[in-house]
Amino acid sequence: MLYLQQIGRGLRKTDTKKNIIVIDVVDEYGAMIKACNMHTIFANSYYVPFGDIIKTDYTPGDMVVIDGLKERIERIMEVDINSFEEKYGDYLSQEQVAREYFVSTGTVTSWVKKKKIVPSVEYRFGNKSIYLFSPDDVEKYRKELNIKEHNDSTIKEDFFEFLEERDYSLSYKMPFLLAIVKHIDAIGDAKIEDVLDDYIAFYQDRLARGLQVDRSTCPYDEKMLKDRKAVQRNMLTNPFEKFERKRFLYYSKDLSVISMNHALFGQMKEEDWERVRRQMREDLRKYYDGMGGV
């Protein structure tokens, strides 16, 4: 949509403008791997350097003149104007496969390199590639690699299994999740400002008491903790992204809320919330043992 809006600005009619020159260097690709270029927009399957995008009857040798620029047509190339959405609308990207399998994109990349899984489609762009996987191949590799299927019926079990892993390279998950549980409302939303307040307060309190904030790799010092935007960016990268990748939490920038997956939220009972609070507090005590305690 943004690409179309940009082109649309040039296409507006005025008394002083006769032509628009669009330098379409490379296709635009969004998160869903959708092709978007001028030839697709105007359904013109013939590429002619300097050619009029709406003209489809050029022949080699014709002269193209645009704003005084002259160019002889030496070749006409047929291009594929079908969008990726039309051809591969139900295929999964590398990121989507990672989410489907509950692993990191790095793991999927490693599997591709080791040929544990083979992409159904590979598009090369310079020294990089875009991998796409058909639904059939996704299921095939799920069975071959004995990967558990994750869906709404397993999401609560998945959530607590994730917490039980206790994968804490830094402390972030614990105060973050405690803040989410504290501020989540009746529809499963927590205002990000409220979560951020508690999250920052946890580390500021440690500083105020002269305690070690976290391990040496943690960037939270007195200066950074005063920069709410910086802390929020960091929080949305880690730990939020770890929960979002597994589809437990989502962030709406427009609404400024962090939302729990509705299927998960609907299955959570009061004893489940207390279980989360109890584990996070216990894990914080163990994590900070040797760093002055909680």
TrEMBL record:
Q: Which UniProt keywords apply?
A: DNA-binding
Checking InterPro entries in the record gives:
P-loop_NTPase
> What is the protein's species of origin?
Blautia faecicola
Name of protein: DNA-binding protein
Please give the Gene Ontology molecular function terms for this protein.
Answer: DNA binding
